Amino acid sequence: MIFVTTYKVKPFLTKEETAELMGVFAANGPGPGTTAHYLAADGSHGMVISENDDIGAAYRNILNYTQWVEYDTKVMLDIDEAVPHIMDALS
Question: What is the pTM of this model?
C-alpha cells in the first residue's frame, strides 16, 4: 500500500524539545518503506510518502514521535487502479 502522511510539529516546542525530537529521529529514523520525505521551505509542515504492507510497523514508528508531531495519513490508490472503479461507479 502507498501512504501519504502530512505532519505538523506541535506549536511552541522549546529548543530542548526540538533537540529531543531530533535525537529520537536520529535513533529511530523514518518509518518502514519511506520513499520520500519533504519539509515545506517555510517549516510549516512535512510530507512523507511510503510504500508498506505492514501497517503495524508504520504505526509503531509514528508512536516514537507523537509527543511532538501531529499526523494525517491517507492510503493512496494508483490512478490506473482507481479509474476502473470510477468508471464502474459512473455506469
Answer: 0.84
